[in-house]
Amino acid sequence: MKRTLRTIGDLSLYFLFFLIVIFGVSRLVKLVIGSRPEDIDSRVDLLVPGFIIVLAFLITNLLYYRIRRDKLVWHGWPEWLPSLTGFGKGCLIAFVMIVLILGGTMLMGGGEFELVDGTVSEYMLYVLTALGAMFVMVLGEEWLFRGYLLVKLADRMGIYRANVVVALLFAGFHMTNEGSSFLVAINIFLGSYLVGVLRFTDGGLPVAWGFHFAWNGAQLIAGSVISGEVFPVPMIRFVSRENSIVSGGLFGPEGGIAATAITAVAIFLLLRVFRNKPAFTVYLDRQTAP
Q1: How would you label 248-269 residue by residue, b for 16+ Cβ within 10 Å and e otherwise?
Q2: Which of 26, 211, 235, 238 is the residue whose CA sits 20 to 30 A from 19?
Q3: Predicted TM-score (pTM) of this structure
């Protein structure tokens, strides 16, 4: 009971720090760039909040570690080479999964590619700048859900149960998105659980970051709706059909039945591969701090 209360207290204090810091950072950014324009581009709408969240977590971790000396705030960041390798592995896994999801959705009649207005140069410019914004934004999300929160809960509850709790929170976080449904909630839960499994491998947070980045990025490249968010990609568009169970509807292909099946298979395979790995079973032995 005491350990549980201490865990709740530590998490409450950590996120209190975060809320104070992000308020200060947001005010500072607003002073520098001014108020939010009404016709703001979707890429800027990703980049600015992402930058604020990442900067706020960096400052929070520095402050919290100095005050509490809790090494878990920095857990999950290996050396440079393992981090780059982990990021690349996460990207590869997600990219393959999205290709399979789009392919499966098309085979079931849930969507197809269509050509729209735009040139190759316009397409490349838009995609590259949007990917840059996503690169920052998804790091903020991963730090929020797979950072101190997940590791602290895992220290108290064990990896598997903590991963379930965080996956439920992550799914709930996305339920206000356009096109959300019960199947979408299941898919987001499964996807989050999968990222949590990757998070406790040797790749640490970078592999989770890479997976999340490529998951969104591959859909962007395909011109698809991403978690209910429409990106006006020039030249090509993945158009979903009306049957939301197959196509994912307004949420996008990641909300369809193909995503359910492929993500479930991926979780099964990853748990088979990593269940006996030292980094997955005794991860707390690898705590590091600056």
Answers
A1: bbbbbbbbbbbbbebbeebbee
A2: 211
A3: 0.90
